[in-house]
TrEMBL record, chains A, B:
This is TetR family transcriptional regulator. GO terms for molecular function: DNA binding. Residues 5-65 form the HTH tetR-type domain. Transmembrane segments: none annotated. InterPro entries: Homeodomain-like_sf, HTH_TetR, Tet_transcr_reg_TetR-rel_C_sf, YxaF_TetR_C. It comes from Paenibacillus barcinonensis. Keywords: DNA-binding, Transcription, Transcription regulation. Residues 28-47 bind DNA.
Length: 195, 195
């Protein structure tokens, strides 16, 4: 990795961490520059439009990571229901391992904190959720589940995953995520059996 | 209502609206004073410890409103499953009526944005979620559902409700909430039938 692209990655990684741990509004560009140990010019070079452009990049980078993890998990398990359960179990374990503070699912600062103030960030967050639903729905359809039921089930999976994550982080306890994981695996299995 | 208690209510209502629509961090005390049209001394009189104390009061006020609404809804319907469905339907309609921006469920700015930075606000948010689960679990137990299953179902209800709210507000579309409502009513009904 060249030094330049390394600076860009450092900026994005630092920004994503700060946006989550202290919020989008509370994070200033100077703090990102300082904590990423990059030259001041780098941030303005890579993100000439500033904080919103950088936030957009954080959303897309995090999304690419999550999508890849979805795909890898689904490929490792025979059924979508088992893949969903494992994906959420791993999320729960990562959240616990980070002490519930170092973990930064994009939705928390992006969808929630910024969707009321930035149409661009709201649209990006909407695309992310739609992408996750699409991946899950496609795998359910491959399992032989009808399209309408597959899309509805996928929406429930994403909603429950996000909600259980809120409660787990608030309670600093992974049980809500584990309960959701077990439950969703039954939901997906039931959808399959009803075909 | 006396003029003094009116000022206090105006401050809380304004603060809750601003915390949600622009975030906890981005909201300053001066803006709350200005937009609530209250004398500067009032905020410092009622909330001598400042923003965190005011946020705590916003959480508790919103929570009292939500708990009351839960109770009223459950009293109006014969089964808990129907009550849950109606509660979320009403939430969806309120979110839509507000254009998805004037609506401020407490979890968004309290549990999410502040739980990483304030132990006091995190604990308050945790109590709120626990209170909601307790109300739902109690009603399920009254319906004859076993305690363990009732508590697990209540946790799923609160998680899915919160998650569907995130997706609905991000998408500016009430469908995720409606899907969750229909689904949770089936979940609660199934729990009941399995006793």
């Amino acid at each position: 990795m060249s030094e330049k692209s390394n600076a860009r990655d450092l900026i994005i990684g630092t920004a994503a961490r700060l946006f989550f741990s202290q919020g989008y509004h509370a994070t200033g560009l100077n703090q990102i520059i300082k904590e990423s140990n990059t030259p001041k010019g780098s941030l303005y070079h890579y993100f000439p439009q500033g904080k919103e452009e950088l936030a957009l990049e954080c959303i897309q980078t995090t999304n690419a990571y999550v999508l890849q993890k979805f795909q890898e998990t689904f490929q490792s398990y025979e059924t979508t229901s088992e893949g969903i359960r494992q994906f959420i179990y791993e999320t729960a374990n990562e959240a616990e391992a980070s002490g519930y503070t170092g973990f930064y699912p994009f939705s928390f600062w992006a969808a929630v904190e910024t969707s009321c103030i930035s149409q661009q960030l709201r649209a990006a967050s909407q695309d992310v959720f739609a992408g996750w639903q699409e991946v899950i729905a496609c795998h359910l359809i491959q399992d032989g589940i009808g399209e309408e039921r597959a899309r509805e089930t996928a929406m429930l999976v994403v909603s429950l995953m996000e909600g259980a994550l809120i409660i787990s982080l608030t309670n600093q306890d992974k049980q809500p995520l584990l309960t959701a994981a077990d439950y969703l695996s039954v939901v997906a299995k039931n959808a399959e059996q009803k075909q």
